[in-house]
Amino acid sequence: MWDKLPSTKPIPQTIPKPEPKPIIEDKPEPKPEPIIEKKPEPEQPKVDIALENKKKELEKQAKIELEKKKKTELERKIAQQMREEDLQDNKAAEKQANIDREKALNKLQQDLLNENNVADTKTASAANASIIGEYTEKIKAKIRGNVNKTLCGDGNPELRFDIGLLPTGELSGPPKLVKSSGSAACDDAVERAIAASQPLPLPTDPAIYAKFRSLNLRFKPNE
Description:
This protein is mainly α. The protein has a domain at 137-219: Fusion Protein Consisting Of Minor Coat Protein, Glycine Rich Linker, Tola, And A His Tag, Chain: A, Domain 2. The protein contains 3 helices and 3 strands, in the order H-E-E-H-H-E. The longest helix has 96 residues, at 49-144.
């Protein structure tokens, strides 16, 4: 019976494989850096000290000359500007002097003209006054010739009349008694004589006639 039992085979054991050893690669040795040889610096040419000093002196001299030239040019421009300003001032002063002289001359001429006008006016006024006086006396003489003097007595009465005259010598209106002689008969006699004396003598100059357009006549009939 036990022979009929299945035989048990032994289970084969699994042997683990050994881990492979890591492959260590050999690192290449670093290459040595190439040695760069420094090029020798070119030798500086030896400077001639005397030549260098001379060059510096020439540069300094040129700079001084340039500054001197600039200063001279600036002074020339300033002097030119001052001359131009002086010239302008002189021209302005001369122009103003001419204006002042012209004004003075015009004033002198105007003063002389005014003096002449005044003299002419005085002369004309004197002449006009003479003519006015002359014609006033002519008017009085004509009126006096028409007065009935017996009505004015033996004294020397004085009357004043305002009379208006036309250019023809005619009365422009009735005479107006301003001052009485003190006698109504005498006053009336003179008023009648004024009316009877028309036309009264008048100057022909219109400017002088204007003085007679309205005349204040002072009259003494017994003169």
